[in-house]
Amino acid sequence: MENPPGVGELTPPDRTLLGPGPSPVHPRVLRAMSTPLVGHLDPAFVDIMDETQDLLRYAFRTENEWTLPVSGTGSAAMEAAIGNLVEPGETMLVPTNGYFGGRMAEMARRAGGEVVHVDAPWGEPLDPADVQDAFDAHQPDVFGFVHAETSTGVRQPQVPELTRIAHSHDALVVADTVTSLGGVELRVDDWNIDAAYAGPQKCLSCPPGASPLTLNDDAMDKVLSRDTPSRSWYLDLSLLEGYWGDERAYHHTAPVTNVYALREALRLVAEEGIEERWARHRRVAGALKSGVEAMGLELEPDDDYWLPSLNAVRVPDGVTDTGVIDYLRDHYDLEIAGGLGDLDGEIFRIGCMGHGAREKNVAFLLTALADALDSLGADVDPAGGIDAARDSL
Amino acid sequence: MENPPGVGELTPPDRTLLGPGPSPVHPRVLRAMSTPLVGHLDPAFVDIMDETQDLLRYAFRTENEWTLPVSGTGSAAMEAAIGNLVEPGETMLVPTNGYFGGRMAEMARRAGGEVVHVDAPWGEPLDPADVQDAFDAHQPDVFGFVHAETSTGVRQPQVPELTRIAHSHDALVVADTVTSLGGVELRVDDWNIDAAYAGPQKCLSCPPGASPLTLNDDAMDKVLSRDTPSRSWYLDLSLLEGYWGDERAYHHTAPVTNVYALREALRLVAEEGIEERWARHRRVAGALKSGVEAMGLELEPDDDYWLPSLNAVRVPDGVTDTGVIDYLRDHYDLEIAGGLGDLDGEIFRIGCMGHGAREKNVAFLLTALADALDSLGADVDPAGGIDAARDSL
């Protein structure tokens, strides 16, 4: 481009973010991002790294030494986990019950792995019996599952049962906790998860850019004893270990500001208390759920595996998903999202995450959604949502 | 970790960053980072993406459609370029004259490529005759060179001659412009560079986290006609094309805040004018160079390939690099760095980048450095630096 383009001051609209993420960011986290930088090898930054790692361990409920933010968005942390733990020729077992199991498969193949599947329909969790059968049939080396499926709003129950099956077959377990970390009960150590990754822009309410990852010693032993290096240099955990471990050796320039933000977001988690934070998400999302159900809308997943942080609501007859989504954005500066993959056009995805998981947002969402459904002619009677939500609190 | 760790408010020291990056960030860019987020698929964010891409084209001096920020630090943009352009079994020619040529080699191998070398000592640029010989000997498919070698302070001259040689052998050219983009003359289109990547935290003075990459049609045609997908899903440019191209389809959650920051940093480039910005770097770094030379210190590279943005200064007798670096940090809150690889312990690396490339910082650096050298007993007479710098302006 020859001449400087005329680009004005940054003035994005002031949205209320109640979609699948990013979620609303706490003002303290935004303010942390305007802090002048220190160098990524500065002794002061090393202290900040240590603190951030401690705070991450607290949120993950783990003592894992190898707990760090990966320098990229959640998918980078995901590929760091899968690309390092799946060696060429190995087999990874992945689920078919949502969008992100499919992404796991794609990453395992890129790593040189073979992919086998354990089936469940979109909108349902895995059945441990099916996982057991898949292990018996395929003897996979690595098993990936999605704890909180952002595409379907399904929470995987019975995690300790899944990890028990995997470990009895000497497989490592990788958990996608993108939409659970910091909002939904997750116990990496108690549940014997070998590796877990997350995104910061969901229940941690932190801007994306540095993404939580934790590996236990079994997982890290495998990473450090690979026959061939991982296929990405940027995401090679044996090299990242040099930077985030005791050595603090230069690998790449850490995204300093994103680490500042993550540290502040995790401080808010620590101040609230992780169990109290899970309880808040259940309580506030429970009100949201009561409200939309009182409006005649239907939640996609059963109560047994409802995911408080991401509510998949069936699109009612008489309206389209995009009609409602656009109406909410244009009239209310409010973001919710539609479905992905098998559920494209079938559901709304309404987030209740982190700083967004507040009663005021439930009231706002239900009011705005009632107007949208009414104005656009949905075959439901949207009155009564607010009252039901209030009653549930 | 069982209990929440006691981590206090974020209060990093207030450093003046005159090392190899990150460089000092302009207050307008820091402020942009405290802007509340919109969603990564919001129509308003699509406009912001368009504007950022236009501004990047201006800075790169290119009309390339495929010009985008990669969601990671400079090394992620580097691996996106190399990992997509080098197919398994292909040969990449890389230089041996610095740290980052070595990183190119490592990434090319991870991509499944063979690596061949064109030799030059650390601290010198490539000789086109040697590049010609290497092409004749090895017929590589891809040629990588480092326009601005952050480890040695060497600027590669004669770039059009290098690209001519490569194209006469039907090879694609990848340029590392990490430490030149926005500070040192760089003309992607006029110089016929096929792909170039950079870091935002150097001469653009933007926090790391979203990193510039540009590819011309020849390079993108190769990416889109690969026999096998690239080995990283996260950095697969054929998928990123879906998000940053016309389709705007979901791939991963873009680091919204880092894009805000990059857009603001690039607006500052456009307001100043890219050629004026190059001239400022030459003028201010020239004063720095005059100053340190007047103090009896020696710049590592010859004047013909001096890199204004990164000044490699020989450590004088009587002091150690770490002694001086620690002194400046502890007494002046001032960051400079030491050498890497072959030049470890041999040089100081003093950045003059972006918002850091100001006369006030030259005066501060020379004053502080004179004190450090004097106090620590260097075999030089550090008087006279400031006067020489002032005279050169």
TrEMBL record, chains A, B:
Residues 1-26 are annotated as: Disordered. CDD domains: AGAT_like. InterPro entries: Aminotrans_V_dom, PyrdxlP-dep_Trfase, PyrdxlP-dep_Trfase_major, PyrdxlP-dep_Trfase_small, SP_NH2Trfase/AEP_transaminase. One of its GO terms (molecular function) is alanine-glyoxylate transaminase activity. Gene3D superfamilies: Aspartate Aminotransferase, domain 1 (3.90.1150.10), Type I PLP-dependent aspartate aminotransferase-like (Major domain) (3.40.640.10). Residues 39-296 form the Aminotransferase class V domain. Its cofactor is pyridoxal 5'-phosphate. Keywords: Aminotransferase, Pyridoxal phosphate, Transferase. Belongs to the class-V pyridoxal-phosphate-dependent aminotransferase family. This is Alanine--glyoxylate aminotransferase family protein.
